Each structure stands twice: as structure tokens, then as C-alpha cells.
User: Which sequence fits this backbone?
């Protein structure tokens, strides 16, 4: 009886090992990469296609490196070079840049000027993409800001580009900003990028 019992135990162990191996192999096959996926997505279009292939509703893209104007300035230098205002976004429009990154146009309304003087004029002013017509303004208490990041729907997929090195402004929130302004276009430059933004 003992030899037979030993054989039965050995067969049971072998069967269990085979079952576990088959389960692992099946899991690995199911988890293998779908051949329809784009392996090295370089564009937002590629990421949207991958998200749809996987049945996902969201996708993320990275942010480009940006050398913000005044990012290495001390607080005293920044306050001397820029105007400090409290303002809130009243309109937002995100868009795609060269099918690789997201950027957003914000229209701000000034609620208070803290520097007590005319807003510093930028010279030279930085170049930007053309702002959308619906956000254009010539009101003295309004200005536009072009900023990296944002969120937009592409073919049913929500594409966003969150990150620690940028700020995503929200309508209705108030912010303390350091700005220079192009008076003709009403487009402002943020001093020190996200480091010159304080939410109130």
C-alpha cells in the first residue's frame, strides 16, 4: 500500500504543477501586448489610438521642457521686474501643439493690482501661438496667458498633461500672479513660470 500511496501523491503533485503552469501561461498570454498597440507612441494621435485599443477613456502626454522667464530671479528681483496682480480665469481653451503636447490659453480678469502702478510692459515680448478669437480682449482689466498643459477630448478620449512643473488654472479661483504685459495683444508673460503663481 505504501508504494502505491507514494505514487498517487507524486502523481497529484505533478498534476498540480501542470495545472499551475497552464494557468500561468494562459495569464501571460492574456497579459501580453496587443499587436495593435503602437509600441513607442510619439504623438497624441498615437496615444489616443492606444487608449482606444485598450478600451480606455483617458490618455496622458508629457510636458515639454520650458525655460521660464525669470525662473532664476530672487523674489526681490522678480517684484522689481514684474507687476503683481490678483486675477481669476474667466475662460479657458486647451489645444494641441504639433500633435505632441497640450497647451492652454487662459483669459484672466484682474481683481486687484498690488504693485500700485501701471502693469510692466514686456520688451521684447515672447512669441506665442495665435490665441483663439473668442478669448481676444482689449479690456484694461483683462489679459491672456498661454501656458503648457491642459485637458482636451480627442475622438472620445480625454487627453491631459498633468505635471509638477506647471499650473492648471481653474475658472472661479483667484491667483496672485507676477506678469509682464504686451499692451497691444493683451498677452501676459508669467514671471518665473509656476513658481510665480500663488493661489488665494
Assistant:
Amino acid at each position: 500500500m505504501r508504494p502505491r500511496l507514494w505514487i498517487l501523491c507524486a502523481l497529484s503533485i505533478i498534476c498540480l504543477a501542470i495545472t499551475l503552469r497552464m494557468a500561468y501561461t494562459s495569464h501571460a498570454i492574456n497579459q501580453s501586448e496587443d499587436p495593435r498597440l503602437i509600441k513607442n507612441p510619439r504623438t497624441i494621435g498615437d496615444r489616443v489610438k492606444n487608449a482606444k485599443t485598450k478600451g480606455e477613456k483617458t490618455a496622458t502626454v508629457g510636458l515639454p521642457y520650458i525655460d521660464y522667464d525669470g525662473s532664476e530671479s530672487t523674489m526681490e528681483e522678480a517684484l522689481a521686474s514684474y507687476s503683481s496682480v490678483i486675477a481669476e480665469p474667466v475662460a479657458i481653451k486647451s489645444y494641441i501643439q504639433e500633435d505632441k503636447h497640450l497647451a492652454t490659453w487662459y483669459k484672466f480678469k484682474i481683481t486687484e493690482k498690488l504693485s500700485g502702478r501701471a502693469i510692466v510692459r514686456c520688451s521684447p515680448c515672447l512669441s506665442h501661438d495665435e490665441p483663439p478669437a473668442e478669448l481676444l480682449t482689449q479690456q484694461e482689466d483683462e489679459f491672456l496667458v498661454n501656458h503648457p498643459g491642459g485637458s482636451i477630448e480627442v475622438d472620445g478620449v480625454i487627453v491631459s498633461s498633468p505635471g509638477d512643473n506647471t499650473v492648471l488654472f481653474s475658472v472661479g479661483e483667484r491667483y496672485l500672479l507676477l506678469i509682464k504685459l504686451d499692451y497691444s495683444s493683451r498677452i501676459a508673460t508669467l514671471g518665473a513660470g509656476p513658481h510665480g503663481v500663488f493661489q488665494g
The chain has two domains: 2-56, 59-199.
